[in-house]
Amino acid sequence: MKNLRLLLFLPVIVFFLIGSTNGQVPNNSFEEWENDEPVNWFSSNAEDYPTLVTRTDDAHSGSFALKIESQQINGNLFIGYINNGADGNGTPVSERYEALNLYYKLMKNTVSTYFWAIVSIRAGEESIGGGAVSIFDAQDNFTHLSVPIMYVDERVPDNVTIFFWVGDAQLDPAAGGSFAVIDDVSFGDVQTDVENDVNNPTAFKLEQNFPNPFNPSTKIKYTVPASGEKVTLKVYNVLGNELATLVDDVKSAGAYEVNFNASSLTSGTYFYKLQTGNLVETKKMIYLK
Q1: What is the pTM of this model?
Q2: DSSP code, position 89
Q3: Which of these, 172, 48, 188, 194, lies nearest to 111 by C-alpha position?
Q4: For 226-262, what is each residue's pLDDT tens digit?
Q5: Which CATH homologous superfamily contains domain 2-188?
Q6: Which of 57, 53, 96, 50 is nearest to 73 (CA)?
Q7: CATH class of 205-287
Q8: Residue among 214, 161, 184 at smallest CA distance from 29
Q9: What residues does each domain of the chain span?
């Protein structure tokens, strides 16, 4: 059964790594549906697999929105996901967008339930940028989300792949029934209502690694609020196995940066966790060879 749960998790990673052919997002508000599937999107719905992607009239705008959920069946967690393009191959683009913007709600049944939004930008067969944001906080009302896109060179992309999925960081079957509602997906500038805390430079903070996705190295910045505390920064795989310790030392209050080289690892999704005292924060990163 453990192997089965892992197999149910892996197809999302596989689709992400295959590549894309993608642009401004067709059917971005999920108004068009055919055979219970959103037009120009490819979902986890399949024969002999739970229906986890559905239409809902709980929309941010228009008549419909997208609902993605996870289900627990016979002790296994089935994860719902979707990516753009009728065959899962994405859609074309011809300019360098700063961010993917959308509106979402999230209902979660476990602490480790999350909604994940991923963007992969390509020029031909090469990955030249992307971004990923994980949401662990439940949201009862539609909330705006910007996924910043970072580039590794100056080329203009010609395709993009978008992934949304709702899962559980521990693959806990108790997460079954958790869901996200997504609407009004578009590319554009980074939009945020949250101001940077410039008056508190030593707040506890773990930043998103850059670049992300990366190959083979990426930088991780973090800030610790108090001197004399032991700080650890560790990397884990999707099964929770510890792979590397990047920091294990007593630090003074301030901002730091470390480099992580994943050349010995396989392509995929990894977690990095910062801890000092009772303060803990975890983020995800994507390694693409």
Answers
A1: 0.62
A2: -
A3: 172
A4: 777 899 999 998 777 889 999 999 988 888 999 999 9
A5: BT2081, beta-jelly-roll domain (2.60.120.890)
A6: 50
A7: mainly beta
A8: 184
A9: 2-188, 205-287
Comparing CA positions, the residue from 101, 102, 118 lying closest to residue 183 is 102
Are the C-beta atoms of 30 and 66 separated by less than 8 Å?
A: yes
- pLDDT of 5-18, one tens digit each? 333 444 444 334 33
Per the CB < 8 A criterion, the answer to whether 50 and 74 are in contact is: no
Backbone dihedral angles phi then psi of residue 83, each to the nearest 5 degrees: -140, 160
Dihedral sign of CA atoms 33, 118, 243, 235 in order: negative
Specify the amino acid at residue 124.
Answer: G
The alpha carbon of 145 is separated from its chain's Cα centroid by a whole number of angstroms, namely 12
The CB-side HSE value for 67 (13 A sphere, CA atoms) comes to 17
Q: Cβ(269)–Cβ(198) under 8 Å?
A: no
CB 157 within 8 Å of CB 93: yes
The residue type of 283 is K
Contact (CB, 8 A) for 56 and 64: yes
Helix (H, G, I), strand (E, B) or coil at 27: coil
Q: What's residue 175's pLDDT?
A: 93
Round to whole Å and give the CA distance between 1 and 204.
Answer: 39
SS3 12: helix
Buried residues in 75-90 as b, exposed as e (16+ CB within 10 A): ebbbbbbbbbbbebbb
How far apart (Å, rounded) are the C-alpha atoms in residues 38 and 31?
8
Residue 266 CA to residue 268 CA, distance in Å, equals 6
Q: 277: which residues sit within 8 A by CB, 6+ positions away?
A: 226, 229
